[in-house]
Amino acid sequence: MSLTLYHPFSRNSHFSFSLLGINRYYDNLEMMFGFRIAPVMKICWMFVTPLFSLTIFIMGAISYSELTYKRKTYEYTYPSWAIGVGWMLALVSVIWIPITFLKRVIDAEGSIAQRLMSTTRPILKRHQLRQGEDLTKVVLDESCSFDPDDPILQGLDPRDEPLLANSVELQKIENSKRNETNGV
To answer: Which of 9, 19, 30, 175 shows its CA 20 to 30 Å from the CA of 90?
Structure first.
């Protein structure tokens, strides 16, 4: 019997902050918890966790063996097709990450270095920007821009919507209402 401490296809916090950036991830945690967590956690997420995860992954790959079911009187070895089905089930959800990355690198313009830089920057909507955001480090996606005149949103109080509260979108709604009352 073996105990799996790490599954190479599992989702963990390292994946989240590697896409968002450690400072943005740290700020998001502060917003959720209501207080800033210890700075040592930032160091752990940047160095200790990836090193520990990589070590466990390498050790698991080195000591990999086919799955068997052992009892006192009987040992069952799973057939190759069953092991293949298990690997296919594990890979079907994960394979899309490198495929999507490669597609975006191929579709991007510029040299290989420029392509890699543009595909690894976070794509943010306007309401996700922080005050004083360095726009050279992010890609601004305005394809889903917010329209306060949208008939679906008429009569909606943005303060009741957690996604809109304290955001740039809330400011847009309030400005459009002010303009309507002032006759502009």
So the answer is: 19
Question: Are residues 121 and 137 in contact, defined by beta-carbon separation less than 8 angstroms?
Answer: yes
Domain ranges of the chain: 1-64, 65-120, 126-184
50-100 per-position pLDDT tens digit: 899 999 989 988 988 887 888 888 888 889 899 899 889 989 988 998 999
3-state secondary structure (DSSP) of residue 69: strand
- Which residues, other chains included, contact 22 with Cβ-Cβ below 8 Å and sequence gap of 6+? 42, 45, 46
Task: Count other C-beta atoms under 10 Å from residue 47's C-beta.
Answer: 10
Round to whole Å and give the CA distance between 35 and 154: 35
Encoded amino acid at 114, one letter: Q
The rounded distance, in Å, linking the Cα atoms of 174 and 166 is 11
Residue 117 and residue 138 in contact, taking contact as beta carbons nearer than 8 Å: no
User: Given the DSSP bridges, would you call strands 139-140 and 68-70 parallel, antiparallel or unpaired?
Assistant: unpaired
For residue 37, what is the DSSP state?
Answer: P
- Rounded Cα distance, 52 and 58, in Å: 10
